[in-house]
């Protein structure tokens, strides 16, 4: 076969390209990609929720057409007794809030001087866009609740809750206080989302690039009564210590509302600052985290612990995750990670457990392979052969196939 | 398997942690994909951090243009994140990203060709070059990318994957989403077109005939 005529030419091209790598803004691309990913995730969740609502409606068709027709209608809203228009900008007068009542029971108030609009109405809620100022909301909790608040570049997804959202475009400051329920906020610096629960506040200062998570319990300056959702009547009142006032970034800077406690361990872990994340988690109190954190958060903490060289904490966290979420995929994931973190003899047990709990899980092939590795490491040849046979039957071309064949080829017994 | 029967004290002893896995093993691609599919908050960022350099570099070498490279790489990751469920073998993430990259570059090149036909871009538009004027290979790269710019996208991608990226024919075919025979046809056709044009350029012809050391 003749040599490619351009071989020398392309070798020279490769050489020339390697002499000066492109000056590409990798960090800028990262930011844009993650922002797009965050907003598409939010849209996906809304689509899913809306899709479920539609599916539910389809089931009810057999019962009564009238009910479905009424139930499928999007919410409407009124301002001072007048029908509100989607997309129209609303300006709260100086010194007076502007209240919006929604047909599904929620109430929203633009605080004095604030400007915003209802960007969209759906059956279970609305999207309220805040251009500047603050908005207080009491969202009626329903099965199909679909409420979002846009505040500048930030996005707050809501389940039945009471919250205050503030956005100052001039100061580039975002503030969120959750009085009841929980929300998930995404935006610059928190592209991957931050869960904020009742009694917590989240403040983002884009100029100083600071994220602060604090408590709303210290709020004492509020003069207004918190908004209450009109329906359902069973909605619990806001705790007295969490009365809603118009929260401004200035309030926070003076320490009137939230006490900044520094970036959360979760934010630090997501930023790859594993050691800092572990330290922050320990400061925040591990027992509390183990009681209340989501399964994902516990796995994140375990991962950060591992990277920070804290196998003790990694192990404890994974065990806590399994204890709190038995039978869930996260528990299986924890079993896999426990296997990865354990010595060979014990690792087999954890990997096998993962395979029992998630026989078709995404890590099943890897876990099967690691079982072979572990048996080989402990010189358990019969175990290795059993695991190898199983592996080859399921993954004849898998990455551990070669090791599996070697294990099967061994004639030695235990 | 009775997990509750595991000896915590034994397992926690420092010596045993180092027995098989002496240090914290990095998260595998499969684990990363699993985390992303489950909606893990930081997985997208970790995936980007791990693969950004190779994707951006590949896009750049395929296009030869810094500005376009960022846009196309952005499209690659946005697509990858939103379509991660289509990745059947999580451990094959890197190869999959390579294929997504080739696909996005192909779309970008086709778009550019359409714009040229519609006279939205000048026909003689030269690709941006990665070299400084003092670099002796400036003319070489400029001419190579000028010719690549004239080739059909599939031919161009085949040449870059095989001759500049140095992928095997099998891997390059996979990355391009083509059968082996189709890829070989594209490569042969592309190389013939490229060489025919290169021979007419003095700056390149000497490399083909061995006149430059």
Describe this structure in words.
The complex is a heterodimer of chains A (414) and B (213). Chain A is built from 14 helices and 15 strands. Chain A has helices at residues 7-19, 26-60, 65-72, 249-253, 265-270, 274-284, 286-292, 295-307, 311-324, 329-341, 344-357, 364-377, 381-394, 401-409; strands at 77-79, 82-83, 89-91, 98-102, 107-110, 115-122, 125-138, 147-151, 154-158, 162-168, 173-180, 182-187, 190-197, 200-205, 210-215. In chain A, α11 (344-357) runs antiparallel to α12 (364-377) and α12 runs parallel beside α14. The two termini of chain A are 52 Å apart. Helices cover 68% and strands 0% of the residues of chain B.
Describe the secondary-structure layout:
The complex is a heterodimer of chains A (414) and B (213).
Chain A: H1 7-19, H2 26-60, H3 65-72, E1 77-79, E2 82-83, E3 89-91, E4 98-102, E5 107-110, E6 115-122, E7 125-138, E8 147-151, E9 154-158, E10 162-168, E11 173-180, E12 182-187, E13 190-197, E14 200-205, E15 210-215, H4 249-253, H5 265-270, H6 274-284, H7 286-292, H8 295-307, H9 311-324, H10 329-341, H11 344-357, H12 364-377, H13 381-394, H14 401-409
Parallel strand pairs in A: 7-8
Antiparallel strand pairs in A: 1-2, 1-4, 3-6, 4-5, 5-7, 6-7, 7-10, 8-9, 9-12, 10-11, 11-14, 12-13, 14-15
Helix pairs in contact in A: 2-3, 6-8, 8-9, 8-10, 9-10, 10-11, 11-12, 12-13, 12-14, 13-14
Chain B: H1 8-12, H2 14-20, H3 29-37, H4 43-63, H5 66-82, H6 93-117, H7 138-150, H8 153-164, H9 169-176, H10 180-198, H11 202-209
Question: What's the gist of this structure?
Answer:
Chain A is α+β, with helices and mostly antiparallel strands. Chain A is 43% helix and 22% strand. Chain A is built from 14 helices and 15 strands.
């Amino acid at each position: 076969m003749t040599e490619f005529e351009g071989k020398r030419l392309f070798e020279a091209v490769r050489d020339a390209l390697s002499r000066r790598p492109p000056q590409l803004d990798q960090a800028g691309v990262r930011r844009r990609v993650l922002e797009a990913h965050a907003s598409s995730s939010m849209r996906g969740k809304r689509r899913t929720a809306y899709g479920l609502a539609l599916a539910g409606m389809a089931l009810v068709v057999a019962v009564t057409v009238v009910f479905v027709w009424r139930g499928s209608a999007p919410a409407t809203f009124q301002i001072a007794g007048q029908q509100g228009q989607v997309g129209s900008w609303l300006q709260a007068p100086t010194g007076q809030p502007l209240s919006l009542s929604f047909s599904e029971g929620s109430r929203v108030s633009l605080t004095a001087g604030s400007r915003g609009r209802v960007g969209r109405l759906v059956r279970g809620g609305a999207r309220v866009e805040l251009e500047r100022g603050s908005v207080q909301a009491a969202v009626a909790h329903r099965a199909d609740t679909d409420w979002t608040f846009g505040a500048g570049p930030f996005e707050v997804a809501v389940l039945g809750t009471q919250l205050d959202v503030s956005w100052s475009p001039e100061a580039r400051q975002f503030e969120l206080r959750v009085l009841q329920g929980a929300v998930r906020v995404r935006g610059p610096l928190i592209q991957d989302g931050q869960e904020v629960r009742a009694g917590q506040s989240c403040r983002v200062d884009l100029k100083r690039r600071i994220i602060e998570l604090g408590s709303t319990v210290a709020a004492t300056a509020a003069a207004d009564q918190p908004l209450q959702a009109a329906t359902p009547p069973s909605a619990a009142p806001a705790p007295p210590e969490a009365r809603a006032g118009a929260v401004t970034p200035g309030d926070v800077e003076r320490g009137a509302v939230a006490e900044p406690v520094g970036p959360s361990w979760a934010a630090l872990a997501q930023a790859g600052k594993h050691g800092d994340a572990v330290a922050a988690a320990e400061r925040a109190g591990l027992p509390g985290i183990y009681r209340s954190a989501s399964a994902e958060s516990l796995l994140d903490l375990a991962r950060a612990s591992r990277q920070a060289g804290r196998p003790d904490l990694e192990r404890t966290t994974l065990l806590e995750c399994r204890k709190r979420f038995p039978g869930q995929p996260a528990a299986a994931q924890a079993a896999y990670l426990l296997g990865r973190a354990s010595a060979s003899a014990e690792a087999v047990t954890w990997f096998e457990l993962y395979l029992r709990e998630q026989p078709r899980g995404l890590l099943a092939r890897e876990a099967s392979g690691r079982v072979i590795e572990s048996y080989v490491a402990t010189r358990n040849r019969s175990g290795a052969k059993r695991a190898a046979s199983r592996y080859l039957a399921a993954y004849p071309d898998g990455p551990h196939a070669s090791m599996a064949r070697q294990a099967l080829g061994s004639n030695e017994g235990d | 398997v009775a997990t509750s029967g595991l000896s915590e004290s034994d397992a926690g002893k420092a010596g045993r942690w180092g027995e098989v896995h002496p240090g914290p093993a990095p998260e595998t691609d499969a684990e990363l994909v699993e985390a992303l599919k489950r909606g893990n908050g930081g997985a997208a960022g970790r995936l980007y951090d791990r693969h950004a350099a190779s994707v951006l570099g590949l896009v750049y070498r395929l296009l030869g243009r810094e500005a376009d490279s960022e846009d196309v790489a952005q499209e690659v990751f946005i697509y990858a994140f939103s379509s991660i469920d289509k990745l059947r073998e999580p451990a094959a993430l890197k190869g999959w990203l390579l294929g997504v990259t080739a696909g996005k570059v192909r779309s970008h090149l086709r778009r550019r060709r359409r714009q040229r036909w519609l006279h939205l871009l000048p026909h003689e538009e030269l690709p941006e070059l990665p070299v400084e004027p003092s670099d002796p290979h400036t003319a070489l790269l400029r001419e190579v990318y000028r010719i690549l710019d004239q080739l059909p996208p599939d031919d161009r991608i085949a040449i870059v994957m095989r001759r500049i990226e140095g992928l095997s024919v099998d891997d390059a075919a996979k990355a391009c989403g083509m059968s082996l025979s189709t890829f070989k046809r594209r490569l042969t056709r592309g190389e013939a077109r490229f060489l025919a044009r290169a021979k007419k350029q003095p700056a390149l012809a000497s490399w083909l005939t061995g006149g430059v050391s």
